[in-house]
Write a structure and sequence with these properties.
About 85% of the residues lie in helices and about 0% in strands. By secondary structure, the protein is mainly alpha-helical.
């Protein structure tokens, strides 16, 4: 009980310290690390553009599927195996990974366009806002404050993998799918915070591999976006069914 009390006391104390000046205070992050973060987020934006191009290519030519998913993982493994000094090659592989990832989720995006295009825009904006808010929260927090969550999130991710494996063998239910969806969203939103603080800490220790760090944030963004989009599509279809029943 004392541990819980001290935790909530520290949280309330940190809330009292928040002000507009604290939002502008990035003294815990050195100028070198700040420049590194700018490079990371600029590369992330380029990767998202490449991913959007991949989804558009799927809509045009129906290229997304199992092969693009395998190719995406192959490019990702190739990128991680290359020396950080081969910068141009690694950036090209990151863009190829993003393009293939966009093509892989292209069927879902195509479905969203057919059902309600506004859902797609709302899901992307919601993901961007959530991603930005949690990233800023991680930057403004004390260094290494949320890194301890990494172990809990890894456990949550392993639970999701085992649940998916079990449901693919024994068959799943609507309740299990819903749990996987919302629990997965919670896990990957947590990863946004942990990965952001991990990038900052590694940069302070001299690891300025912006390509690898952008890849980490890109996978988090896509995972959150896919789950938000599925949740919104489910809600939209359920509303339409209710309207048809009333009519």
């Amino acid at each position: 009980m004392d541990a819980f009390a001290s935790f909530f006391d520290s949280q309330s104390a940190s809330r009292n310290r928040w002000s507009y000046d604290s939002l502008k205070n990035l003294r815990q992050i050195s100028p070198l690390v700040q420049n590194h973060l700018k490079q990371v987020y600029l590369t992330l934006c380029c990767a998202l553009v490449a991913s959007a191009a991949g989804a558009y290519l799927h809509i045009l030519w129906n290229i997304g599927g199992l092969l693009t998913t395998i190719a995406c993982f192959g490019c990702m493994a190739w990128l991680l195996s290359i020396s950080p000094y081969e910068e141009q090659k690694r950036v090209a592989l990151l863009m190829a990974t993003a393009l293939l990832q966009g093509a892989s989720i292209g069927p879902l995006i195509d479905l969203a366009i057919q059902i309600d295009p506004s859902v797609l825009i709302t899901a992307f904006v919601g993901t961007a806002v959530a991603f930005g808010c949690f990233s800023v929260a991680a930057m403004l927090a004390r260094r290494r404050e949320y890194l301890y969550l990494g172990g809990l999130l890894s456990s949550g991710l392993s639970i999701l993998l085992w649940l998916h494996f079990a449901s693919s063998i024994f068959g799943g239910s609507a309740a299990l799918f819903k749990f996987e969806l919302y629990f997965g969203l919670l896990v990957f939103v947590g990863y946004v915070v942990v990965d952001t603080q991990d990038i900052i800490e590694k940069a302070h220790l001299g690891d300025l591999d912006y390509v690898k760090h952008s890849l980490s944030l890109f996978t988090d963004f896509v995972a959150v976006f896919v789950r938000i989009l599925i949740i919104m599509l489910k809600n939209s279809t359920e509303k339409e069914k209710k309207k048809k029943r009333r009519d």
